[in-house]
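User: I'm new to structure prediction. If I give you an amino acid sequence, what do you actually give back? Let's try with this one:
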Amino acid sequence: MHLTAIDEAPMSRFHRKLAVACSGGPLLDGYLLSIIGIALAGIGADLGLGSTETAMIGVAALVGMFFGGLIIGPVTDRVGRRVMYIIDLAVLLTASVACAFVTSAWQLIVLRLIVGFAIGADYPIATSLLTEWVPKQQRARMMGVLIIAWYAGAAGAYFVGYVLAQSAGHGAWRWMLASAALVSAAVIALRHGTPESPRWLVAKGRPEEASALIAEVLDVRVSPEDLVAAHSSTARRGSVAELFRGIYLRRTAFCALFYTCAVIPLWALYIFGPTILGTFGLGSGNLSNLGSALITLLFLAGTLPAMRALETVGRRRMITWSFAAMVPPLLILGIWPSAPVAVVILCFCLYGLFSGAPNILEWAYPNELFPTSIRASAVGMAVALSRFGAAAGTYLVPVSLTHLGTGTTMWIGAAITAAGWLICLAWAEETSNRPLEEAGATVTGGTTATPRPGKAAVPTDAAPLAE
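Assistant: Good question. You get back a string of structure tokens that encode the predicted 3D arrangement of the chain. For your 467 residues, that looks like this:
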């Protein structure tokens, strides 16, 4: 028994608390990216913003997330998960409070860059720590919790924005932006006392500390010698350059490309739901907003069955089936842009339901396909590259709707999703129910999915062979 002590451990109060604490990053991501949209009207009036300044404030957090993931991922692999676990949120808290006192557009742009940087930094920190502690049969479920937290943060932002707009009067936008500090403080309190990752400790030549930590947290005795032996076969130097060599190059490309193909249509539907539904004849009033709210709810609902299916059916099957199932609803809307309202809503809802597995695997795959020494770097790279997809979905959709029309826009979304399906068909690997050391090794192959109670395990689709 060595690192399997972590993989085979039963879910405990420690694991659940860790999952909630790690969810703070996605929750703040959803909150901060949503609250700025509500606050911008008041900001523009008070600070006299032009269109360029408004756009820069809106996009600043996305730019910050790009650099946060790109830079802090490798730092986390070097100095540890626990060290960075609190620092990034302390920076976010400070920047959020400072937003309440800005007097010019450039001050707010800089602070939103810092806020985005801290959020982008938290993803590789928190998801790596969570992945390296949770049992192997719970990894997809825990990543699903992070996605749920994102939607909860977005919903909370709209609620807080509405309440403050009604009660705080002039300058309510300052309170809206500063309100993230309260959420940050709560998450910091939850994270207090979180232990370091034993896997990271072993990778850094500190097996005695890892052994003591596993005994303290999981009440399992593992000798330092066994931990070293378990790690030696998958030990890596930890250079970011490894992400672009051999099989890890293919895995980096896979994570970046499927992530981008998923996030462009999804982000477009999420942000521009009312606008798109309006082009299908739902108008621009409450009916359109109600339809958009329903779609958002379905995005969240789609993660719930996917959390279990990713363990019982398998990662590879679920992501390929999901991408394939996401294409027809967009094709129908492309072919039939004058479809009845019921058909439009049904197609959008089906897309939202089928998107559950890719949403979860956007975080699970980068954590599972790379070894401990470069895991946070891989997640950071995925976060950074995904911002291009988010930006494309945000800025190109209204242009396409205006100049190409609704039908063509849906065709483009279907083509991007179909490209994601082909990428998954070619490169997706099976990592469910496998120890992290095995999933992140340079030699891969098919494995078995976790069986349902009372049923034997069934082989999943074979993963592509390593180079």
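You can read the tokens as a compact description of the fold. Here is one thing that stands out. Residues 51-79 form the longest helix (29 residues).
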